[in-house]
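Collaboration report, partner site 2.

Our partner group contributed sequences for two proteins of shared interest, and the home lab folded both. The records are reproduced in the order in which they were received, starting with the first partner submission.
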Amino acid sequence: QVHLVESGGGLVQAGGSLRLSCVGSGRTFSSYSMGWFRQAPGKERTFVAAMNWNGDPTYYADSVKGRFTISRDNAKNTGYLQMSRLKSEDTAIYYCAATRSSMFRWEYGKSWKYDYWGQGTQVTVSS
């Protein structure tokens, strides 16, 4: 089992950058695939980015491809989401998630494949 805690959210102007962090408890965090999802007000939770336990391969939603980068440092039990060239439509609560289940490529973007979730961190982009 793993407990996830996100941080790094905040208010930023359009075009700016933020880096979100997700710290996982437990010595086995390095064996978990992880993903980032987001939920805007009044909308469903959607996929942002994901990676498997060793950081390769990585997957991105089309809306963030080229602007966001997912990474991890297993020695620190931490995953990251570097967000650049932020837009107002990126405003949402961002959640990190983890699973030890093996996944096909198309499953990395499916929230139901992830067993553990953080509490979320708010990202607000002002235009």
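Second partner submission, folded after the first:
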Amino acid sequence: QVHIVESGGGLVQAGGSLRLSCAASGGTFNRFAMGWFRQAPGKEREFVAAISWGGGAIAYADSVKGRFTISRDNAKNTVYLQMNTLKPEDTAVYYCATMRTYYSDSYSRNQYDYNYWGQGTQVTVSS
């Protein structure tokens, strides 16, 4: 069983920055691709960013490209999401998830490919 804990959410003004962290335990972290997703009130959960377990393959949603950066530290079993130039439309609960894969450059934008999820952390961007 993999346990995931997100942190770093909060309230920030538009244009500000936050860094989310996601710590995983109970599994082989360096064999997990990791993904960030978000869900705003009244909307479906959507893909934000993903990174392969090798760190060499990364993907972003178009809405965050150029503003958000995903990274990982396998020694700390942690993945990060640096969020800059935040906009009110970034307001959502942000979730971290793991995807077990044998391939170092594999990841997915599809939430149904992910096996374990954290409880989420709230990000609120005021205008």
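Feedback sent to the partner group on the second submission included the following. The radius of gyration is 13 Å. DSSP finds no helices and eleven strands in the chain.
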